[in-house]
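Help needed: design a sequence for this.
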């Protein structure tokens, strides 16, 4: 694709959750039509889009129809098979970010190896394929150490702390004896994240850092812009740029960081998509992360990323969403509801952005 896609073009999104919904809403504001591909009928994104194909993410016919219908295709979550993105590209579709970004982010060993290769520091780690390998890795990295499955882990799932070598066998069973990674403990002062975008022309735009607070492994709150010195902001920007360029990336990327408190930032993981810790941009920036992603994949110029206010974003999980009347009555709160019917415990149902003057 050489020229920017004109309004009226149709975009495709693999995945119909809340991220797809907010991408679709941003695309609609720019005059695009959106088709969602998701295995579940009536998905949150499908309900605000022009159409939804109900099919598995690896359904060859569905992918081919999506590729032929859409001038550009993207995805909203990282468990879409990288082979599906590859199939779209081979069928002639413009799919971004590319299959490589997805493949790197899907495997924690590949991810950390890539990150170290582009100069982004991480914790020390070792791939683990069996119990014997786990014991050797514990010997090298020491305890406590965190055992995580290489693939399919998110929101703290598929991971277990090992506090002494005699816990190794139980930990190996607890994660299902699947290919894994052992990580040294990051002794961090706080968790930060940076949201950045790269356009088709290689231009890069980076938002201010956010500070993140998790509860039970799930993001609860992001405060942005984070209170941080200019040197750390510059370092985070350089990390984001190295990752985006290293992957020849097009679109928005989320980078989760550990702030060690002594000037060092380690990358925990990357998300090749719009990110929960970037939701604050909806009410803190002129061009939010969703519009930014649509601009990037459509070949438009990237938008401004400065914050015009400070935002505290809070996720509403499960029945916390029932507070919507009280939140709607708060003068500085902006409520973003995902239109999900069933408020299962822990399910992300909505978020609220509380806006404060800078
Ligand atoms: P993850 O699924 O990798 O994002 O991990 C979920 C949470 O576990 C992170 O947000 C951190 O709070 C914590 N965590 C993950 N990896 C490490 C580590 N190597 N050292 C210390 N804490 C970690």
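Sure. Designed sequence:
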């Amino acid at each position: 694709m050489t020229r920017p896609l004109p309004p009226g073009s149709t975009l495709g999104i693999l995945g119909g959750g809340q991220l797809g919904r907010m991408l679709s809403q941003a695309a609609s504001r720019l005059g695009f039509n959106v088709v969602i591909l998701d295995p579940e009928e009536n998905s949150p994104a499908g309900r605000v889009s022009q159409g939804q194909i109900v099919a598995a993410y690896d359904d060859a016919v569905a992918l081919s129809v999506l590729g032929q219908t859409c001038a550009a295709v993207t995805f909203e979550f990282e468990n879409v098979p990288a082979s599906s993105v590859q199939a779209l590209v081979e069928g002639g579709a413009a799919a971004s970010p590319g299959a490589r970004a997805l493949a790197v982010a899907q495997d924690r060993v590949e991810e950390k190896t890539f990150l170290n290769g582009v100069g982004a520091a991480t914790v020390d780690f070792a791939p683990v394929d069996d119990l014997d390998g786990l014991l050797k890795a514990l010997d090298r990295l020491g305890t406590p150490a965190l055992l995580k499955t290489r693939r399919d882990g998110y929101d703290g799932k598929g991971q277990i702390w090992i506090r002494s070598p005699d816990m190794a066998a139980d930990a190996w069973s607890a994660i299902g004896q699947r290919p894994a990674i052992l990580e040294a403990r990051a002794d961090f002062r706080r968790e930060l994240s940076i949201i950045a975008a790269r356009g088709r022309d290689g231009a890069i735009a980076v938002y201010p850092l956010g500070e993140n607070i998790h509860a039970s492994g799930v993001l609860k709150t992001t405060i942005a812009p984070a209170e941080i010195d200019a040197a750390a902001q510059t370092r985070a920007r350089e990390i984001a740029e190295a990752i985006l360029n290293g992957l020849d990336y097009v679109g928005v990327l989320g980078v989760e960081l550990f702030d060690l408190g002594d000037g060092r930032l380690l990358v925990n993981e990357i998300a090749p998509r719009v990110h929960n810790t970037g939701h604050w941009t909806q009410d803190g920036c002129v061009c939010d992360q969703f519009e930014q992603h649509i601009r990037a994949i459509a070949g438009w110029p990237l938008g401004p990323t400065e914050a015009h206010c400070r935002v505290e974003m809070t996720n509403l999980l499960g029945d916390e969403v029932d507070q919507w009347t009280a939140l709607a009555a708060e003068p500085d709160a902006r409520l973003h509801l995902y239109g999900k019917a069933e408020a299962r415990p822990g399910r992300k149902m909505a978020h609220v952005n509380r806006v404060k003057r800078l």
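The longest strand covers residues 190-198.
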